[in-house]
Amino acid sequence: MAHPKSNDIQLIVFARDLDNLRNNQNLIERLFVVCGTIGSFVAKRVIENNGNTQIALSKLRMGFDTQSGAEALFDNFKISVAETGEPLINFLAKEVLRAMR
User: Fold this and answer.
1) Hey, which end of the chain has fewer CB within 10 Å, N or C?
2) Which pTM does this prediction carry?
3) SS3 category, 62
4) How many CB atoms are closer than 10 A to CB 24?
5) What phi, psi does 56 have (nearest 5°)?
6) Which residues contact 41 (CB under 8 A, 6 or more apart)?
7) For position 5, what pLDDT does the model report?
8) H helices within the chain, ranges in order?
9) Which DSSP letter does residue 65 get?
10) Hey, which residues does 77 pair with through a beta bridge?
11) Phi first, then psi: what are they for 49, rounded to 5°?
């Protein structure tokens, strides 16, 4: 994958159940189907890094293109903003409200 832009928001992705992720190839295949290549990429990186990985928001957003993709990512991973530790969903809600002002 290409290196993220310097102004791209970095996220930390944690496995909710690392053992299940490691031992369930069907889960990784499902992540690929509903999130595209980014789903299986994130799963493999989380496994390789023993439970978490860092990824740019611009890369992960492809996995949120569908409701099923968003559900699969949030069901299997805890996703936080790297700089603050704030949950991604809280961060996004604040950004939307700020943009509406």
Assistant:
1) C
2) 0.87
3) helix
4) 14
5) -75, 140
6) 1
7) 54
8) 18-23, 25-35, 37-48, 57-60, 67-76, 88-100
9) S
10) 15
11) -95, 20
CB-based contact 63:69 (threshold 8 Å): yes
The amino acid at 5: K
pLDDT digits (tens, 9 = 90+) for 4-51: 455 799 999 999 999 999 999 999 999 999 999 999 999 999 999 999
**AA identity, residue 60:** L
10-21, pLDDT tens digit by residue? 999 999 999 999
Burial of 38 (0-12, 13-18, 19+ CB in 10 A): buried
Side chain identity at 10, as an amino acid letter?
Answer: Q
Write down the residue that tokens 């409701």 correspond to: 67
User: Cα 101 to the chain's mean position, in Å?
Assistant: 28
